[in-house]
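quick one before i forget lol
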Amino acid sequence: MASPEQPENTLPQAGSTTGRGRLRRVRFPVLLITLFGVMVVAGGITQLVLPVPILALPVGVGLAIAALTCYRWLCRVVELRPDIPELGRTGRWSQLRRGTLIGLGMFAGLMTLIAVFGGWQGVSWGSVGGFLGAAGLMASVAVTEELLFRGVVFRIMEERAGTVIALVVSGVLFGAMHLINANATLWGASAIALTAGVMLAAAYIATRSLWLPIGLHFAWNFTQAGIFGVTVSGSAVQSEGLLNVTLSGPSALTGGAFGPEASLFALLICMVPTILLLRRAARTGQIRPRAHRAVAQRDRGARPHR
């Protein structure tokens, strides 16, 4: 018989804890594969309903909410984290709103610069349906990609390799993912890595929250497709927004078949918030060293002074 101090269910609980500990040790591939699958499935569903704007908007928003729910569940079950601070409720709406306004202003500024230098060949009215459909599509895209690349790839890599290496690697992977698009080019993917990949990671580093990068990502893509109706990241799907803008001119100006994100102006525009965000992160101590360096620094700090 078990003694009062040692209940009968002690062994099952220990086995369960051990099993969950083993699961946590493989958290990176588990989260990576699962959320990549979520991104692919969500992308396929939104493409199917995109021609029906009355469905595309609610379906896209619903998929974004489902992806967030899945991420929270995985963090609790696989990583054993009772709290998920990167998706905290405090400041959620203010960061989403700030990111949306910044992203909208940035892409509108990019299109203005292209127009000033003669890159607009023509412009015509699009449709409200395209505008609404793009909102649903880009809500799903922004959430799933941020959860995968900033929530999993960058966050977990940073824990071991430090902020700088995680920033570079996650940016390169984010750019490389866009090479599968129909009109992709090596320069276009490189531009995505240097602009969106680094800027969105900087937004996460500065705030330690996914809400600001989600807002930035959504607004940039939505303004591109839903307002100006131009190609998004070399996609074969022709965007239709409130406007249909046709670009013409050197690829350095317009981005060519890849779209405005491959324009040199996109690099310049994204560089400003990236530098500001990284400076803020450095000032507030959010730039983290590699794990072994952090341990060494902590040990040095713990040594008694002679």
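fyi The chain has a mean pLDDT of 89.
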